[in-house]
Amino acid sequence: MPRKYVENPNACTIVHAMNIIGNKWKPIIIYLLSGGPLRFGKILVLLPTISKKVLTQQLKELDNDQLIIRKSYNEIPPRVEYELSEKGLTLLPILRELSLWTADTFPEIEFEKCRIE
Amino acid sequence: MPRKYVENPNACTIVHAMNIIGNKWKPIIIYLLSGGPLRFGKILVLLPTISKKVLTQQLKELDNDQLIIRKSYNEIPPRVEYELSEKGLTLLPILRELSLWTADTFPEIEFEKCRIE
DNA sequence: AAAAGTGGTAACCCAAAAGTAACTTATGCC
DNA sequence: GGCATAAGTTACTTTTGGGTTACCACTTTT
């Protein structure tokens, strides 16, 4: 069964973008890291409803896609910091615009709607 | 069990944005519609691997979120056209930037990677 | 009378994503 | 010796998203 492709060539890049950041947690994580490096445990606290397992997973994928950098200090107990890479930084303005767009376009949304459960 | 919220207030809008367009098909559909209104059947042809059910679903959600407009002509056989709304149009430049970002940041990706299966 | 054309819906299925809870590792501290 | 600590991992369950197939409604065409 031959595989098929989307016709619009630009769609390709959009698909890829969504593969990279189009899920429940990644854009938020990137947003959080825009304030500077954060330790694993700190992110866990800032995102009170994410599970350890999923956070690990998301960070690993972001690291693989080179949007963030994982810095592991060789200490006991462990200390690991995550920060945005160059690639990650260049994504920030776009996320910011998206954020503004949402605020402008859906002024009625409230905190209520942004439950992360 | 009390629900909790993300701390960063900006995250709220990002979460909402991702709820609206952060899935497999919606950004592509929006992209397709940037060329002008399209009939249901035409979209099905342009996205050879989407199923009728899912397309219906996605279009309904995009319509509910007022990113697109559904125009149903009272004819037999039915004719329904979908086109971008004002809100949808204002999203386009951002999608375009995201598209450029991906192309710049991951120059190595090829069509190969954009299989939609 | 039967088939074709169009935009659906309903019932069912599967794989992937996300969530939960317990366990691990290596050290310093009491 | 026993506990705390941080950043995980493992095994398991639940939820969700997307997919398949069949069917419908109404008219025109054959």
- In DSSP terms (H or I, runs of 4 or more residues), the helix count of chain A works out at 5
- Cα-atom radius of gyration of chain A: 16 Å
Shape of chain A: globular
Q: Strand share of the residues of chain A? A: 5-15%
Neighbour order of strands in the largest sheet of chain A: 1-3-2
Number of domains of chain A: 1
State the oligomer: homodimer
Overview of the structural elements:
The structure is a homodimer. Chain A is mainly α and about 120 residues long. Chain A has a single domain, classed as Orthogonal Bundle (Arc Repressor Mutant, subunit A). In chain A, about 50% of the residues lie in helices and about 10% in strands. Chain A has 5 helices and 3 strands; from the N terminus they run H-H-E-H-H-E-E-H. In chain A, strands 1-3-2 form a 3-stranded antiparallel beta sheet. In chain A, strand 2 and strand 3 (about 80-85) form a beta hairpin. Chain A is globular, with a radius of gyration of 16 Å. The N and C termini of chain A lie far apart (about 40 Å). Chains A and B meet through helix 1, helix 2 and helix 5 of A and helix 1, helix 2 and helix 5 of B. Chain A binds a DNA duplex (30 and 30 nucleotides) through helix 3 and helix 4.
SSE arrangement:
The structure is a homodimer of 117-residue chains.
Chain A: H1 9-21, H2 26-33, E1 38-39, H3 40-46, H4 52-64, E2 68-73, E3 79-84, H5 86-105
Chain A binds a DNA duplex (30 and 30 nucleotides) through residues 23-25, 39-41, 44, 50-54, 56-57, 72, 75-80.
